[in-house]
Amino acid sequence: MSHVTSLTDLRALIAADTAASNAIQARIVQLEDPEPDKSTWPLLYQMLDVDPNTEDNYVSEACNLSLKRLARRNNPKFLPNDTEAPKRWAAVMKAYEILTDPERKRFYDMRNKTPTDLEGFGLTSLQIE
Fold first, then answer.
1. pTM across the whole model
2. What percentage of the chain has pLDDT greater than the value 70?
3. Which H or E run includes 58?
4. Phi, psi of 105 (to 5 degrees)
């Protein structure tokens, strides 16, 4: 440990130690809770980037946050020259409607298949980001 000669030195030492401690803690969390394999998630959850294990009372909040994020990259209102945007946005909105409606979500979760009202969208070919 270095020699502390002033209060400023002590504060700098504490700040450096705190930063190192925070970095170590963040890495521990990363190692303990790695990023889930989203490729195994049901399609609608993948589209909205919402973990299917999210507790029911938080699903709407997670979907709302996701919708805001997806809007800038998929909503035709923001992308008037993107000819694929209307299809992507319609699929995003349908996924949102299903996952935020408790009854429809429960049905989707039980069946674990794409709802019939989404079959015509060709969801696997849409590049929803």
1. 0.64
2. 70
3. helix 56-74
4. -65, -45
